[in-house]
C-alpha cells in the first residue's frame, strides 16, 4: 500500500527544499509517472478514504498533492481536474488555520498547503492565499518574478475581476462573458 512518504519522495525527488519546474508545466512523461504510481489514489483521496494521512504535516502535504495538484496533471482539459478542490480546501483550512502544520514544513513544501486557496474561485480564499504566500517573501524562490507570490497575486486579480477563472469555463460547461472571451485571447490568460 502506498504511504505518504512514497508520494513525497517522488514529488520532491530533489529534496523538500528544492522547487522543480516540472511541477507547473505540461510534461507527458511526468504525468505518466504520476498516473502509473499514484493515479489509483485520486478517487479514494477525493472520497475521504485517505484523510487519516492529515494527522501529521507530511501526510497532509501528500494528501493535498493528491487532492489539488495531481488531478491538474492527470485530468487536464476535463472538469474532474477540479473535482476534489472543495475537499482540498477543507483539508488545507484545518492544516493551516487550525493546526498550523504548514510551519513544520520548509517554504517550498508549504506552497502545496497554500495552493488550494489560490485555486479557489472565492475571493476570501484568494485573500488568504495572498496572505499566506506573502508570508514566504523571505524565501528567494517565492519572491522572484514569476515566483509563487506573483502567481498568487495574479490569481487573485482574475477572481477580483471576473469572480471566477475564465479558462475553466469550457470544461465546466460555463458560458464566457464577452469580457472573459477577450481576456482568454491574451497571452498568459490561463494558468
Automatic annotation (TrEMBL):
Which SUPFAM superfamilies does its entry note? TPR-like (SSF48452)
Which residues belong to the signal peptide in this entry? none
Instruction: List, alphabetically, the InterPro entries matched.
Output: DUF924, TPR-like_helical_dom_sf
Q: Which Pfam families match?
A: DUF924
Report the protein name in the record. Answer: DUF924 domain-containing protein
Amino acid at each position: 500500500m502506498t504511504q505518504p512518504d512514497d508520494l513525497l519522495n517522488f514529488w520532491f525527488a530533489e529534496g523538500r527544499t528544492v522547487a522543480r519546474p516540472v511541477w507547473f508545466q505540461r510534461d507527458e512523461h511526468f504525468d505518466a509517472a504520476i498516473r502509473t504510481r499514484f493515479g489509483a489514489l485520486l478517487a479514494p483521496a477525493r472520497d475521504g478514504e485517505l484523510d487519516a494521512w492529515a494527522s501529521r504535516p507530511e501526510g497532509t502535504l501528500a494528501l493535498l498533492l493528491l487532492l489539488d495538484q495531481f488531478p491538474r496533471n492527470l485530468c487536464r482539459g476535463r472538469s474532474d481536474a477540479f473535482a476534489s478542490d472543495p475537499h482540498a480546501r477543507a483539508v488545507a483550512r484545518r492544516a493551516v488555520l487550525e493546526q498550523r502544520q504548514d510551519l513544520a514544513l520548509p517554504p517550498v513544501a508549504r506552497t502545496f498547503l497554500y495552493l488550494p486557496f489560490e485555486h479557489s474561485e472565492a475571493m476570501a480564499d484568494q485573500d488568504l492565499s495572498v496572505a499566506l504566500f506573502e508570508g514566504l517573501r523571505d524565501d528567494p524562490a517565492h519572491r522572484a518574478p514569476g515566483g509563487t507570490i506573483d502567481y498568487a497575486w495574479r490569481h487573485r486579480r482574475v477572481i477580483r475581476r471576473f469572480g471566477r477563472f475564465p479558462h475553466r469555463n469550457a470544461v465546466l460547461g460555463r458560458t464566457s462573458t464577452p469580457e472573459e472571451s477577450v481576456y482568454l485571447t491574451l497571452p498568459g490568460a490561463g494558468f
